[in-house]
Design brief:
Strand content: 35-45%
Strand order of the largest sheet: 1-2-3-6-5-4
Number of helices: 5
Shape: globular
């Protein structure tokens, strides 16, 4: 269920979102490289807080190329972007490269996650890929450490 995003991993709870920031920008060189686009292209820059049963779980900082993921509006952000990508745009999410580390929250996270500056959070940095190998998302999700469990499987 990892590619269903937050909504899919919390299917047994009432999931909601609050949009903190939503704009169209040119990506930095770093973001453009991760998304395999040009700095002259446009991306959605989305910051949103995600809740399960009205409890704050995560702040998501997301970049998506408009040329690939078109038509995003506020109503989509209030629900599942991944569901929109697969059901409406008919694109197949295939894989993700993730880096996970513990960090301290910034002021935005303290406010929206209702934590203090010493409360540890987990950052999940991710580049998401479609089945054709195109990257469609670069994100950093900052999770409350008491609300996330990460499981991995290693195969030789």
């Amino acid at each position: 269920k990892q590619f269903g995003g937050f909504s899919e991993t919390n299917v047994d709870k009432k999931v909601s979102s609050k949009i903190i920031q939503f704009e169209v920008i040119h990506p930095t060189e770093e973001i453009a490289t991760k998304l395999k686009i040009s700095c002259d292209d446009f991306v959605y820059y989305i910051i949103r807080a995600r809740y399960a049963d009205d409890e704050p779980y995560v702040i998501e900082y997301t970049y998506m190329p408009i040329g690939l993921i078109h038509g995003i509006k506020n109503d989509i952000l209030m629900n599942s972007i991944y569901k929109y990508i697969e059901k409406e745009l008919k694109l197949k999410i295939k894989s993700a490269h993730r880096t996970i580390k513990a960090i301290r929250p910034n002021e935005i996270e303290q406010e929206w996650l209702k934590i203090d500056k010493n409360f540890p959070i987990l950052e999940v940095e991710q580049v998401g890929f479609l089945d054709n190998g195109q990257s469609f998302e670069y994100s950093k999700s900052h999770h409350r450490s008491d609300k996330i469990e990460i499981r991995t499987v290693s195969i030789k």
